[in-house]
Amino acid sequence: MDRLQLLELSKKYGSPLYVYDTEKIASQYNRLTNAFSAVKNLKLNYAVKALSNINILQFFENLGAGLDTVSIQEVQLSLSTGIDPKKIIYTPNGVSLQEIEEVAKLGVQINIDNLSILELFGQKHPEIPVCVRINPHIMAGGNSKISVGHIDSKFGISIHQVPHIKRVVENTGMNINGIHMHTGSDILDIDTFLRASEILFDVAKQFKNIDFIDFGSGFKVPYKEGDISTDIEQLGLQLSERFNNFCTEYGKDITLMFEPGKFLVSEAGVFLAKVNVVKQTTSTVFAHVDSGFNHLVRPMMYDSYHHITNISNPEGRDRYYSVVGYICETDTFGSNRRIAEISEEDVLCFHNAGAYCFSMASNYNSRYLPAEVMLVDGKDYLIRKRQTLQDILQNQEIVNIKKKTKTKEVVTA
Is position 328 annotated as part of the catalytic site? Predict the structure, then answer.
């Protein structure tokens, strides 16, 4: 995205502001599909939780993607775009049987990640095909909080419990039509995917009516200049060959699925914030912006890196700043960052802000959620208005409570 265009968008729509470039989204989608072009049946289900604006969901549907959801609300949000329910997969964690049943009524693909719910669902609805989420017991991911396939993870059914799954199937007569895993996010080593794939292939062989295998996602994207990322092309070559061989052994052309989120939208998004104050202390220069972890929590929650540039003064002399927010707690976006000289009213650009940024935003400190803008063929479209006080008050109910004051008799000696 052009620096001058971003400055104009900041003036037009105000600050702070999220901006998403659909050209980059399409480029990432095509890169992934091309990497696995040797696979006969490939399906990409965009992970809605990464960025859930309905315009983004509609854009993915237009590209030909399905949608990966984790809650009944994400399912309902997805259906509001008019997408075919059959193009949605629902992979919750630790939800009630009642929620799963409600989602099943909507006609989407169900994916269950624990034995007790699997058995209950199979007893009540053996006619509904179900995918099962397997925990491959592989530690993977760029941060312990986003590593979800290790032995102590709350996600998935242990590979050692596959005999239990088979017994549930035998007792209920239910149909397991898919095998799924997701080991974590920001996975750099493609051998991690290849090791996990062998585990999934071994599991899939034990079920006779598999229609698909879902390998999750977790591809790493670059966060700064010179950063390394998952070699998607090499993964495509190696995993496609192995998958095609499996289909031959299985005797059926099944579908290879992925559920990318960050890979598709992270680099497509930027977050723009205006500098309120530049504050010099005895050892640090702080650049305080008109935002905080209420709008962009990833650096505080995951220690994630977001490259920060001063788009108002790109040719200025480089200095070192700690970029912080206006929340009443420590909300540091970046410490000791080398950035072109910053002055009050300058606009800073936070890169890689497309995934898990707005979708994790909150009204903490009663601050408004920012606006969102989508670029299509270079033209800007407002896809979410900035919040107002009325939005915050909308669902709050005022209760009139009359206080009764008690008077005490004062006794004097």
Answer: yes
